[in-house]
Amino acid sequence: MTLRPAFADTPWFGGDYNPEQWPEEVWEEDVELMRSAGVNLVTVGVFAWSLLEPEEGRYEFGWLDRALDLLHANGVRVDLATATAAPPPWFSESYPESLPVTVDGVRLSPGSRQAYCPSSPAYRSAARRLARALAERYGSHPAVVMWHVNNEYGCHVSRCYCDESAASFRRWLKAKYETIGSLNAAWGTAFWSQSYGSFEQILPPRATPAFPNPTQSLDFDRFSSDELLACFLEEKAVLRDVTPDIPVTTNFMGTFRNVDYWTWAPHVDVISDDLYPDPADPDAARGAALARDLMRSLGRGKPWLLMEQSTAAVNMRPVNVPKAPGQLRALSYQAIARGADGICFFQWRQSAAGAEKFHSAMLPHAGTETRIWREVVRLGSELGELGDLVGASTQAHAALVFDWDSRWAIEQTGLPATSNYLALVAPWHAALTEAGLTVDLTRGDEDLTAYPIVIVPSLFVLTDAQAKAIDAAARAGSVVLVTSQTGVVDENLHARLGGYLGGLQQTLGVWIEEFWPLGGAWARPGAIPVAPESTVAPTVRVRGSVFGPEAIDGVEWSESVHVRDATVRAVFEEGHLSGWPALTRKAHGAGAAWYLATRLGRRDTAALVAQLIAESGVHVRTPFIDGEGGFVETVQRGDTLFVINHGTTAVTLGEEGTDLLSNADSLGLVIEPQGVALIAPMEACLAGFRATDSVIASAPMPK
């Protein structure tokens, strides 16, 4: 049976709705206000397990029947959750062995959410049973348009180290390696007397006296992501069996570290995302743009759903700053520009009790006479008029390799320096974005040849397939940039011998002898930093015409680079590597392969990206005639140019057309901070771009 369409004729607009938290007399007010705000989709039941199944095997659906009927009568569709993200108290009491265990051997207690081990047979059985009961009761309900499985997999418990997890890990390893000899070879267990005689001797990488085995740790990261995926797939199978035509989703979490979304994406009918940029972070919009592009790329260019964001402040940070006036609108349009066909929030009505009562909502504690409510109503009204954008593609002009294996491996202990993978990737995405280019993310082992620009930041774990795809792009005419700490190890974390870079040595015309980290750390934990700042990080002087007449600062890192058949474009000017190459380029016909052996600050990253853009032949027309003072985002989706001012001063447009939001002429239009314009029709913004659509949309999914 064919799946129903996941999206409506106009963008979805709404949020999590928790009627069980309120007396039923409040529900009538809820749906009346939903109508006035333009809400057409709500997620229901995410944390309702204890009310749906108050004791094992006994279900109470009456309240949910009434809630869904009321929503349907008022034209609001439902993304119905399976409610399996938070087992109820009776479950933990009956199955205490299902509670998760930390790396230090501490069994966590119930009392919040996600208090379950993903490998627990009792949990999986109960989750399947509840999913089936919901599907059988509500699969034909006219309000239900989508299933929402669990919630934010791995948010609080992404790794469990209990005995049940250990047994599951051993089964996973047997399926991967087949023989204990193959595992010993892959893990390098001859080191530190770790050779195993049987799979039964293997444990998860629990707390140990010294560094854990690196490949064991990476395999446990892979296993843990797969184990959570198995939980999702078991519930999805039940839902598909009962309701084969209803799409199934679960909510990702932007660039979340602990789950490999490339492996998940093929199994999710609709890519959905929860993202909470910090309004106190001046780079929040840049980091959010990276997450939006990832969601579009995971879906191969298909529309995706912003499942959760905040209207103002959240409750999970030490200090929770609210969004500035207009910021919820600006960030919502950022998601639409980058491929979303739905904008939702956590949550509809702000809770009066519980751990998230100070998390903002569409309907705040203070009610409708509030700034937040006015902004919500305005956004809902505008989105209701944008039906022509639904399903439109977002054009991408560059590819950026983003790889979870490299992320997990480069953040391990026992390395030349401690690294924050996002800090190595995000500056390149930010520089491309600020230059006016839209970026597809890729795992790097697929066809990249249609992209004019390909950037490969710190691909620490380099597979042969990735090296082949990157090489093919350069030889086909792409301008490729590879940055430091790439090609250091293979997929088993064995060092690439004969000089680092592995199969990319011929592509780049260089090889790496030795690392020279400069020491220090600049990335704030939990942030998505877009560029290191030389004022707070150790530096080394670098000189090259690419960066202008003056020497610049390389930040934190350097490498000894041996040139075979590349051209040196910049050199280190001091220290042990004085005179050694810092930046090289090898020509490949119409294409080129660059290598950068250090890290750069924001300005110098932008300078190098500008060089790559000029060389690629991608020409960007700037739609401004006046204005400076921060990040102004420009993205083309379909025939519409989105201009979003995340900066601190107004900008004036020099683009001919009509602003769809104000119906005003766009030429000379002033866009204030947090302001948005949607300009249509318009001429093509890019000349020389070799593809008219998002290249990744037609590319095969990585295996």
Overview of this protein structure:
- With 703 residues, the protein is of the alpha/beta class.
- Among the domains are: 398-619, Rossmann fold, CATH 3.40.50.880; 623-684, Sandwich (Immunoglobulin-like).
- It contains 17 helices and 30 strands.
- The protein is globular and about 75 Å long.
- The model is unreliable at 520-527 and 682-703 (pLDDT under 50).
Q: What does this entry show, briefly?
A:
This protein has 703 residues and is α/β, with parallel strands linked by helices. Helices cover 29% and strands 18% of the residues.
Provide the descriptors you would attach to this structure in a database record.
about 700 residues, alpha/beta, Rossmann fold, Immunoglobulin-like, 10-stranded mixed sheet, 9-stranded parallel sheet, 17 helices, about 20% strand, disordered C terminus
Structural class: alpha/beta
- Provide the residue-averaged pLDDT: 93
Q: How many H/I helical runs?
A: 17
CATH H level of the domain at 398-619: which superfamily? Class I glutamine amidotransferase (GATase) domain
- Share in helix: 25-40%
Might you state the CATH topology name of the domain at 398-619? Rossmann fold
Q: Please report the first level of CATH classification, the CATH class of the domain at 398-619.
A: Alpha Beta
Main beta sheet: strand number and arrangement? 10 strands, mixed
Compute the CA-based radius of gyration: 26 Å
CATH architecture of the domain at 398-619: 3-Layer(aba) Sandwich
Query: Quick one: overall form?
Result: globular
Q: Hey, roughly how much beta strand do the residues contain? A: 15-25%
Termini separation comes to 26 Å
> Largest sheet, order of strands side by side?
11-10-12-13-20-19-18-15-16-21
Q: How many strand units?
A: 30
User: Uncertain regions: pLDDT < 50 for 5+ in a row?
Assistant: 520-527, 682-703
